[in-house]
Amino acid sequence: MEAVMSLAAVVMAWIAWVPLDAIPTPTPTADGSPNLLFVARHYPPQSLARGEEGAVDFQVVIEPSGRIRSCVVTRSSGFAALDTATCDLMIENARFQAVADPNGRRIVSRHAGTLTWTLPAGALRPAVAPVPAKVAVAEEVICRRRLKPDSNYIVTKLCLTRTDWDRTAEYGRMQTNWYQGNGFVP
Hints:
Blueprint: E1 11-16, E2 28-29, H1 35-42, H2 45-50, E3 54-62, E4 68-75, H3 80-93, E5 95-96, E6 99-100, E7 106-107, E8 109-117, E9 141-147, E10 155-161, H4 162-181
Antiparallel strand pairs: 1-8, 2-5, 3-4, 3-8, 4-9, 6-7, 9-10
């Protein structure tokens, strides 16, 4: 089963927080198996069954460690499952070489790219090709490391949209205010 896509060929443009001429372009690297086989294993099952294909433009924010902090779809493929799978695949699996500023310090950077989903060879194709819909571009997904509940040392990664992070923060403020108002917190 092969899907045509290469994380190494994903690069279309790259934007950093500092002037572009001051920083080298980050190089995407693949961990583990070859890209084609890797993506074939991650092709969304519902998209595979419906014969959906398309290109998804995305932008990621890269931490100084080379891991992805957040991902947003900037142009939809027309299929929500492919759009969602693109950011999921990037956040969970893509790694980049660290980018340094002119002083050699690692910095946060941005990377824009395109991931093209093509049905694997031998996949059943529908008699009538699916028509891409006008899909709203998804909200940016931001990942943060959190302590696992009931643990003081196990860290997990939690990925939410900015709206959901804002709701979580507001809920925390409401809880704190309630506890303070009822004499539980000095």
